[in-house]
């Protein structure tokens, strides 16, 4: 190996996609170095103590989209990963003590829904069937390289394969597919269901990490994005990684290291070394240089090209696209240490309340509530009555909290990374957190009494601590002009960036955000192809 190439590949960022990419490359015989700015591997998929004796998945918080092929290929179970399939349970808190609790029991679900709107029971089931059927046909696309806009013969072939797959759908399902990619979530849901509580729940699904109006064209697509998951062989299931989400990335790191990957933490990158238009490694902030034949970036593309790669090395049109690349998921994460379980007023007539708390608990009572949360965030920077998804993982995993006590994840929308002039997230952080607690306490009056401690991650914290530009958990908005062949921008959807030997392996590439591992898998496939065909300069 030459002095200029101490490694075949250096990967920037030890998040789950970077580790996935490293694992595949190392198993194919390449020498790989991974550098990570934080003190721990995992990126946003980490488990950390946030209050004495209380641990939680402090950013990403549940298993739903982690691709089973990656779990198998990298032998993650062998390296300590244990995913428990969660009981399917969704409790939506409505106005005036209304609630809908959905489980796997379809007859029970129909009765729950019919309490408020009889015809919604049939409409909801029909909608679920459509979403599942469309997702089944499109699910495999997450492990395929998209065709490049304006590309060559291979790109035309890829486009043809996709067209053939969609053609297998019935005319009715083709119609629904087009609707899902073009309609607003409010209008799409209105074709199936009317009830405000049920509509509020499904609007939230489309707005997880998606700061958009419910009337924005194309916002219905995110409903589909969240249907691609599979846990323990069950499509659409949700799971809990024992030990928290960090156990996923710890298993990935152990798997990679077992195949020779060199992982270094506390190693922030200053810039990508580019010589004669070719990426040749990275320069760390401590001044050290790590040379490699290929650089793969598990970073937000906006961060990569606005901070780590000088604009002189890329076409002006590409630089402009990256400057305008939208990163605004509108998310705030809070972790609570609790002395007991929250007592929701709507469940006061239920003798055994714990089964209602074993899944997601949604505070999104109606479409109007969701739209107000968005409009407030646009006008004032943050919602005074936010949508909140709660999950209590300690009901599945007693290693996370002392006996009899609990941890609760709170995923909150909408919180604008861009505040009005004169405001700063550090200054209003505790005020905003108090407002969120006050909002939830209207539905669970004992909440304030059982809180022992909390950890709050604003959009600024998510950017500063985890490299999530704009606090965007998906490395870029999942809008139609930033998905599939347009991610991160047209002409560069095949993981190869406009600098030779520089690849994008993070969620800013197809298929986007969520703890999937798919961008890392797909980027590794393209990198290996280029090594195999001697295309690496």
Comma- or semicolon-separated keywords:
537 residues, seven-stranded mixed beta sheet, disordered N terminus, 17 helices, single chain, alpha/beta, FAD/NAD(P)-binding domain, 20 strands
Description of the molecule:
- This protein is α/β, with parallel strands linked by helices and 537 residues long.
- It has 3 domains: 7-45 and 64-82 and 244-325 and 472-532, 3-Layer(bba) Sandwich (FAD/NAD(P)-binding domain); 104-235, no CATH class; 327-469.
- Helix content is 34%, strand content 20%.
- Strands 1, 2, 11, 12, 13, 14 and 20 form a 7-stranded mixed β-sheet that branches. A 7-stranded mixed β-sheet has the order 7-6-16-17-18-15-19.
- A hairpin with a 4-residue loop joins strand 13 and strand 14.
- Mean pLDDT is 93; it is low at 1-5.
Give the terminus-to-terminus CA distance: 14 Å
Please, what is the average pLDDT? 93
Strand content: 15-25%
Under CATH, the topology of the largest domain is which?
A: FAD/NAD(P)-binding domain
The value of Rg in angstroms is: 23 Å
Q: Please give the largest β-sheet.
A: 7 strands, mixed
CATH class of the largest domain: Alpha Beta
* Annotation field: number of helices: 17
Find the structural class using helix and strand composition. alpha/beta
- Count up the domains: 3
Helix proportion of residues, in percent?
A: 25-40%
CATH superfamily of the largest domain: FAD/NAD(P)-binding domain
Ranges with pLDDT <50 over ≥5 residues? 1-5
- What's the β-strand tally? 20
CATH architecture of the largest domain: 3-Layer(bba) Sandwich
Broad shape: globular
